[in-house]
Amino acid sequence: MPELQRLRAGHAPAVLAFEVANRAYFATFISDRGDAFFDHFTEQYNATLAEQEAGTCLFHVLVGEDGTVLGRFNLYDVKDGTAELGYRVAQHVAGHGVATAAVQELCRLAAARHGLRTLRAATTYDNVASQKVLTKTGFVPVGPAEPGGRPGTWYQRDLAAG
Fold it and tell me: Which residue(s) pair with 120 in the sheet?
């Protein structure tokens, strides 16, 4: 059974393998991270851990039984009881409920462990899979968005409502 874990230094090799293996797949839905992300992965990863340590972001990975990373589930811009949610799952597990289960668990953790009251997430109009995940996990559309400069919708979930 996959487990949602708080990102830590030891996850770095599995996170890099996940990002490399799924780069082309992710680029069909969201902006590509670019070569610089991969060329300077260690520095980027250490900066991510520093952001988490500062409390402005909460990063998580979904880890399979074999230790591989199946997804990344992150809360950005944590402040005043709110945060923005971002996530991506490996192509080989997409469409199997993995993202829905992990987002649901992250919503629970956001409220219980971190005292968050509201989460927001943006997705493009053409990312139907992400729209389904958000809807299934209690998010509702609240207005226009431009994730990665592409037209889309903001979704929001009131965590106090369950």
Answer: 84, 156
109-136 residue pLDDT tens? 999 999 999 999 999 998 999 999 999 9
Q: Characterise 109 by phi-psi region: left (phi > 0), alpha (psi -120 to 50), beta (else).
A: alpha
Q: Are 7 and 61 in contact (CB under 8 A)?
A: yes
In the predicted model, what is the mean pLDDT of residues 100-105? 97
Rounded to an integer, what distance in angstroms lies between the CA atom of residue 35 and that of residue 40?
9
Q: Judge whether 116 and 83 are in contact, CB under 8 Å.
A: yes
Query: Which has the closest alpha carbon to 27: 121, 126, 120?
Result: 126
| Interaxial angle between packed helices 128-136 and 98-112, expressed in degrees from 0 to 180 and rounded to the nearest 10 | 50
Q: Report in angstroms the alpha-carbon separations of 110 from 3, 18, 65, 113, 143.
A: 16, 24, 24, 6, 23
Is the pLDDT assigned to residue 72 strictly greater than 70?
A: yes
Pairing of strands 58-63, 82-89: unpaired
**pLDDT tens-digit series, residues 26-67:** 888 777 788 888 899 999 999 999 999 999 999 999 999 999
DSSP state of 95: T
User: Is the separation of the CB atoms in 153 and 123 below 8 Å?
Assistant: yes
